[in-house]
């Protein structure tokens, strides 16, 4: 987990500083010990172990429970060794143990590794060793035990919250990626399969006979497929989550040329005199959205409708406008289409622009036609630093 690594590094610094403090304290009191060489031996062991743990805690595969168990055992043994190495009178007076605050480092390590409960257990074990070393429950060591318990449980609880937040974030990112992929597939299906099924249904009804039955079946499949691509739940375990493809191809394409392919007897295209270059995937998405807007014109505006496409290359954004002279859209019609699972505007147009950092604005007045305005700001991740 990424949240753990900074904590392990901070703990390594704490262990090193605590070791230095323990050594300085022992140097000032070594002459008063009953067995001073034994005390130096303990300091040597703690020094070697501290250096080893600074290496081990940088590697997740090494900071497992076996290493942490040895860590806690050394803290307990070094505390208990004080009772036999120090002068009994000093022990009875409550003098500092050999590891001093270093003994709390393994407790914090247990809290980081296993959470508040394991941290509390390690604090309880270390606290018991302090009581045994003193030979009684005194106010001073009881105070230290309570502080150690509070620190271990607090750090352990914070680590558990951070881990839970990271899992939630990873889940949300997976869900967003899966949803975006489903929307992309829905757009592709809308631009191909659904349009073919709608055409078969319409032509079958016009021809009649067996063709009408075939058209009816095509209409039923169209409804079922629209429901599937618009409402199907996302299975994160089974979903294949490829990248969106945006930015993978560094080549650029001229949007003017791509829009020019849409020109025809009933479609007029106006564009600047200079190339309007965009990264290839972005350009294709922008033109595909314009094509989807044209498809809506032919489907809803009637056989005699005309359309005009205007490409504007502004300093801060690129604008593609698709306007028709049809009857316009009745109020509430778009909301009804979304509720029915029709994805022409919400996915094939708005979804495409949203995926490349742009916006789509639809303006329609009954009896005066419809205009779809596609805006792509230049300051977007899709355009900055990608080709």
TrEMBL record:
What the entry lists under PANTHER family is as follows: NITRATE/NITRITE SENSOR PROTEIN NARX-RELATED, OXYGEN SENSOR HISTIDINE KINASE NREB
Originating species: Streptodolium elevatio
Show where the DUF5931 domain sits.
1-170
Assigned keywords, A-Z? Kinase, Membrane, Transferase, Transmembrane, Transmembrane helix, Two-component regulatory system
Identify the domain of life: Bacteria
Q: Which InterPro entries match?
A: DUF5931, HATPase_C_sf, HATPase_dom, Sensor_HK_TwoCompSys, Sig_transdc_His_kin_sub3_dim/P
Signal transduction histidine kinase subgroup 3 dimerisation and phosphoacceptor domain span: 181-203
NCBIfam families the UniProt entry points to: HK_morpho_MacS
One short Pfam name that applies is DUF5931
Is Kinase among the key words of this record? Answer: yes
Transmembrane ranges, per UniProt, are: 7-27, 39-57, 64-85, 105-129, 141-159
Q: Where is the Histidine kinase/HSP90-like ATPase domain?
A: 284-379
Stated name of the protein: DUF5931 domain-containing protein
